[in-house]
Amino acid sequence: MPQSANYPTIRDPRTGRRRRLHRVVAETLLGRPLLASEVVHHRDGDRTNNAPSNLIVLPNQRYHAHIEYHLRCQRRGMPFLFPELLSGVLQEQPGTLFEHLY
User: Fold this and answer.
1) How many domains, in total, are found in the chain?
2) Which residues belong to any copy of the HNH nuclease domain (predicted)?
């Protein structure tokens, strides 16, 4: 499987274009195409781990950057005033990818 910026890709049989596997997995589980603005986040930070339980669909890049910033601060030991805001990202939740849609 070819790599694109360290993300696994697959060839779309309909269009012949390469697509990032995590976006294809998210679309399959949601049952709809992802919007161009939607971002698929890997919980564990491993770009090759495309398990449905590891993927979260976020509404846009701005929200994704916000989450990443706070997760990096938390790893460095900086206190977070509102930890409940990250609870949905940090919790291991069973079920479908749709439950993680924010």
Assistant:
1) 1
2) 20-62
> Strands 39-42 and 18-20, how do they pair?
unpaired
Q: Please, which residues have CB within 8 angstroms of residue 55's CB and are 6 or more apart in sequence?
A: 22, 25, 26, 29, 40, 41, 42, 43, 97, 100
Largest CA distance in the chain: 48
pTM above 0.85, yes or no: no
Comparing 92 with 23, the larger pLDDT belongs to: 23
Residues of the domain holding 47: 3-100
Nearest 5°: CA angle at 51, between 65 and 12?
A: 85
